[in-house]
Design brief:
9 strands, 21% helix, single chain
């Protein structure tokens, strides 16, 4: 579900720009210190006009915003913007085969660290959210998923990580299949997405992908009401053998 819910944030820092996941999939906020946490919804100094600029209306294959109209290979209906995601239909097929009927309000927190766990701990140091403990607890499963799908041990081979935690309230159904072809930001994502999102606790869902440069891995994971979208820069370059070009 979080591949969709997180898609309203832009990335600004150098590392983010070089290895950005699909253009609405992860926010950066330009943090300079690894323990800095940025919540674009409450701590940013953007003007009201900048907030309006991020609102998008989706009608079929059209994405309409203040910057104009874009035609994309999707078919959905809804509105996305800061703090809100209301959408039904088929997402952009370049980023995977996924359908959804979802409505939610969300709050977003970003940080950096040397590992994915450290990113979460840095956010927790500023915003002690109970759901962060749930993400930290299941992190070994996410790391194992990367090892199984990409044959990369990001715990040992990761040089730097940054990510965004999304805490949301809402309800809906999502389902998706990611087969490894390059998405719109150059990641070959692999995994299955599917859940009925309610207040009830559910299991972990993960999808992972290696950037076409071979220099970064993206990890997207979500639980019942929290998700984590992160990029890990690797110490050494890997050949993206798992990436399939559509």
């Amino acid at each position: 579900a979080f591949s969709a819910q997180a898609r309203n944030l832009d990335r600004h820092c150098t590392f983010c720009s070089a290895h950005a996941p699909p253009d609405r999939a992860m926010g950066c906020g330009g943090s300079k210190a690894k323990d800095e946490v940025i919540n674009p919804t409450t701590k940013d100094t953007k003007t009201a006009d900048r907030v309006v600029d991020k609102v998008k209306v989706h009608v079929g294959s059209l994405e309409i915003g203040t910057d104009g109209v874009a035609v994309k290979p999707k078919f959905n209906l809804g509105v996305t913007g800061p703090n809100v995601y209301v959408m039904g239909g088929v997402r952009d097929v370049r980023d995977g085969v996924a359908v959804e009927a979802f409505g939610m309000m969300h709050k977003d927190y970003m940080s950096k660290g040397s590992t994915l766990v450290e990113v979460l701990q840095n956010i927790k140091a500023v915003e002690p959210l109970p759901v962060l403990d749930d993400l930290i607890k299941v992190m070994p499963e996410a790391i194992a998923a990367v090892m199984e799908s990409l044959k990369i041990d990001i715990a040992a081979e990761g040089a730097e990580a940054e990510g965004v935690v999304f805490v949301f309230t809402g309800t809906g159904v999502t389902a998706g299949l990611y087969l490894g072809w390059l998405d719109t930001k150059g990641y070959g994502m692999i995994g299955v997405e599917g859940q009925v999102s309610t207040a009830a606790s559910i299991g972990l869902s993960v999808r992972v992908g290696l950037h076409e440069s071979g220099e970064a891995v993206r990890v997207v994971m979500w639980l019942a009401n929290v998700g984590f979208d992160a990029v890990v820069r690797l110490k050494t370059k890997h050949h993206p053998e798992t990436v399939v070009r559509a």
